[in-house]
Specification:
The complex is a heterodimer of chains A (about 200) and B (about 180). With about 200 residues, chain A is mainly alpha-helical. Chain A has a domain of about 80 residues. Chain A has five helices and two strands; from the N terminus they run H-H-H-E-E-H-H. In chain A, strands 1-2 form a two-stranded antiparallel sheet. The N terminus of chain A is likely disordered. Chain B has about 180 residues and is of the alpha+beta class. Chain B folds into two domains: about 90 residues, Nuclear Transport Factor 2, Chain: A (Roll), CATH 3.10.450; about 80 residues, Roll (Archaeosine Trna-guanine Transglycosylase, Chain: A, domain 4). Helices cover about 30% and strands about 30% of the residues of chain B. The longest helix of chain B is centred in the N-terminal third of the chain and has 15 residues. Classes of the chains: A mainly alpha (about 200), B alpha+beta (about 180). Chains A and B meet through helix 5 of A and helix 1 and helix 2 of B. Chain A: Component of the 66S pre-ribosomal particle. Chain A: Required for efficient assembly and nuclear export of the 60S ribosomal subunit. Chain A: It is found in: Nucleus, Nucleolus.
């Protein structure tokens, strides 16, 4: 059984293919084989040919309406999305993004002019620093000097006050002692006068 | 061995300007004997141009040293001046400190300069300024940074620090292995 079936199939298929071929055209022939009977009875409406529009551009000839490869389409979509969507607000380290058209690697200072310009820049900044330092120290020195003078003046004042106080005390004491001394002196005088009137001693 | 980049040159000049100010031009501009700065690994050398040209024929790994080593760049990008630069710096020094004979040895052993050891000091030296330390017979001993300005030094007590040591010639013995 199996062998007979197997033998019949190829034969049938052969006949089909054979019947197609004489039709002539490849695609319309396949359809036309079935409609042969219809052709005889009624005139079949003209088959619409699938016509792909062609556009001539400077880049070449492009066919509109042609189905694109899904892979390519996806790629194109992705590229379009990439362009349209805003970039994520991510931090990009300064060293990572290199500006385009710039020399890679280190830039050496080899000419004297460039070296001199760097030197000038450095010198200016250093001079400024030194000047400001000197000025600051000068100001501080002035303030210190003023404070020292003030302190000295205060000390002098305190000293003079002390001296005057001492003098005052000294004077007070002196006056007292003078008064006392006067009293004693007058008393002594009176005593001597008294005595001198009463007795007189003379040595030969 | 390669020339210095923009930033490297700036760092180097900033450090040199601390000690010699505008006299750096005397190092750069020498028409009779042109010199240049070259960097090999992390060390900066001050080299005669003819020698620098000859040195290009030596591979980087094989080249140990050339010219005078001025100092080195640290990993953080700062420049550290070495004692080997003293000869070039001392002749163009802007601010100076002279140390008495009794202060020479303490300085050469790596100590700071105290007021008691100061023989002379340049007028109008601001504080934190690079100075060259000399012995009383004008022999350069090293360099440092002033702790006080000249005016303040005068009032300082004898044990007060006047100059912070940065480098001294004693390093030739102490740091023989790592200096060059």
């Amino acid at each position: 059984m199996g062998t007979s079936r197997g033998a019949s199939k190829p034969a049938g298929s052969n006949s089909k293919t054979l019947s197609k071929r004489p039709g002539g055209a490849k695609k319309p022939g396949a359809a036309g084989n079935k409609n042969k009977k219809q052709d005889l009875s009624t005139p079949a409406p003209k088959q619409k040919r699938k016509f792909l529009k062609k556009t001539h551009t400077t880049a070449g000839v492009a066919q509109i309406g042609k189905k694109k490869d899904p892979k390519k389409k996806r790629e194109a979509d992705l590229a379009r999305l990439e362009k349209e969507l805003p970039k994520l607000n991510m931090i990009t380290p300064a060293g990572v993004v290199q500006p385009k058209g710039k020399k890679k690697g280190k830039v050496f200072v080899e000419d004297k002019d460039k070296m001199m310009s760097i030197l000038l820049r450095v010198n200016d900044s250093k001079d400024g620093q030194i000047q400001s330092k000197l000025e600051r120290s000068r100001k501080l020195e002035e303030i210190r000097e003023a404070r020292r003078k003030e302190e000295e003046a205060r000390n002098e004042q305190r000293k003079s006050k002390m001296e005057s106080a001492k003098d005052a005390i000294r004077n007070k004491r002196k006056r007292k002692s003078d008064e006392d001394g006067d009293k004693v002196k007058s008393a002594a005088k009176a005593y001597i006068q008294k005595k001198s009137g009463a007795k007189k001693v003379a040595f030969a | 061995m390669r020339p210095l980049t923009d930033t490297e040159t700036e760092r180097l000049f900033e450090k040199l300007a601390n000690y010699i100010g505008r006299n750096i031009t005397h190092l750069i501009d020498r028409p009779d004997d042109p010199h240049c700065f070259r960097i090999q690994k992390d060390r900066v050398y001050y080299v005669r141009e003819s020698i620098a040209k000859l040195a290009t024929s030596v591979a980087r790994d094989s080249l140990l040293s050339l010219g005078t080593c001025l100092g080195k760049f640290t990993k953080t990008g700062k420049f550290k001046l070495h004692i080997t630069a003293l000869n070039h710096i001392a002749e163009h020094a802007k601010y100076k400190v002279w140390v008495k004979p009794n202060g020479e040895m303490p300085f050469l052993y790596g100590n700071n300069v105290v007021k008691a050891h100061v023989g002379r000091i340049s007028e109008d030296t601001p504080e934190h300024q690079g100075v060259i330390v000399y012995s009383m017979n004008d022999t350069p001993l090293g360099f440092g940074v002033t702790a006080r300005s000249t005016a303040e030094v005068r009032r300082l007590d004898p044990t007060g620090i006047t100059t912070f040591r940065q480098a001294d010639v004693g390093e030739y013995l102490r740091d023989e292995d790592t200096l060059f």
